[in-house]
Amino acid sequence: MSMQMTSTTIDTTALRESMADPAAGGFCVFEGWVRNENDNSDVERLEYEAYEPLCIKEGEAIIAEAVEKFGVRGAVCVHRSGLLEIGDCAVWVGTASGHRDEAFRACRYIIDEVKVRLPIWKKEHYVSGATEWVSCVRCAKHAVPDSLKSA
Amino acid sequence: MSMQMTSTTIDTTALRESMADPAAGGFCVFEGWVRNENDNSDVERLEYEAYEPLCIKEGEAIIAEAVEKFGVRGAVCVHRSGLLEIGDCAVWVGTASGHRDEAFRACRYIIDEVKVRLPIWKKEHYVSGATEWVSCVRCAKHAVPDSLKSA
Amino acid sequence: MKTLTVRYFAAFRERAGTDAETLEVDVESARDVFELTRDRHGSEDPAGHCKVAINDEMADWSQTVEDGDTILLFPPVAGG
Amino acid sequence: MKTLTVRYFAAFRERAGTDAETLEVDVESARDVFELTRDRHGSEDPAGHCKVAINDEMADWSQTVEDGDTILLFPPVAGG
Questions:
Q1: Distance in Å, alpha carbon of C35 to nearest chain B alpha carbon
Q2: Which of A58, B118, C15, C30 is most deeply packed, by most CB within 10 A?
Q3: Alpha-carbon gap, residue D8 to A125, rounded angstroms
Q4: Is the Cβ of D60 closer than 8 Å to some Cβ of chain A?
Q5: How confident is the model over A80-118, as pLDDT tens digits?
Q6: How many beta carbons lie within 10 A of that of residue C38, not counting itself?
Q7: What's the pTM value of the predicted model, to 2 decimals?
């Protein structure tokens, strides 16, 4: 179980191998890739800024929740920071479990929560030369769930 | 879009690379791995028998349905035949789409349908030396959906 | 009478001791073929748990078989 | 008066022109800090669209800030 941050290319092959488990029958992966387009603007590259100490802490909490809710045997999430090109893997989530249903549900849970809870910000660099911080209002609505409040 | 059958190790790294798409932001993979246990019996290895002509035909139909239903940009499924050891990848499904929701849903749809519609049979070889054809009654109940009937 | 090729797969093939045979029979539907060969393929499952294909097309058990058809009898599948 | 370190991230940092500063202020809650520094971080978003952490723990906007605390102001996140 682990949340990792990296400023270099995510080694998806090594991550897959790290999850090998003779008692696991189902393995689900989600990868977020940098797209060449967003809201009808042509994207040239992306820049992720992350506050790593809290990304790790929140990510570990999310993974623990997924294990608790879905009983998966293994779960790993790795998120990039820094400058990314089109096609680069920005986030990788892998879940392994006895059967497929839990693997799918846990994988989906982790990526959904990672997107709204980790302190990570995305600046899009457009082909036009402009840049913009992407504000995900839908995500913001999710705000801080009770489980996260330190009080 | 393609359904493939293979009697040798599934090259998951090459499959992932084959799905690269600059307009895809979400990529979902499901892998079925050979487990060391089923219904409380210790499994030593598995043997898959497949009727390949209909596996390909049905698999292509399932993939076309997933594209139609969920609008994914790419979808691939590869299923093993022959003798497999614990930990081997028996089936690989990959889906790529603009956003994650379609990728997850299409991936889940494809593996669920593949399991009940493809003419593939699994013989478990137990540590005890016994062997048994696995009969999936739940799957059988799914029977032949109308969409598949040639009439 | 119709001349049919019947193919057996997996557990059906093992129990029949052959992967295919030619039958000269008086039958209407795929289901008739399944029932007629029950002592060969040895299935205790109802046809509804199994599948059938005719000439490499998935078929319904009620589908009519024609002279010269190849009938593929599939035990319950277990892919993935 | 409380002495607080306020840290700005991403768009907030760029608008504030600094990643951190020390303030001597009379405030109760994290929300007060957000409002007080609004002309610095330049947010048009309500606090509810943003997040706050106090001393590296995710916090509620109503949480009380103490003398010596570090307040991390996060604009709307966009991971994944």
A1: 18
A2: B118
A3: 21
A4: yes
A5: 999 999 999 999 999 999 999 999 999 999 999 999 999
A6: 12
A7: 0.92
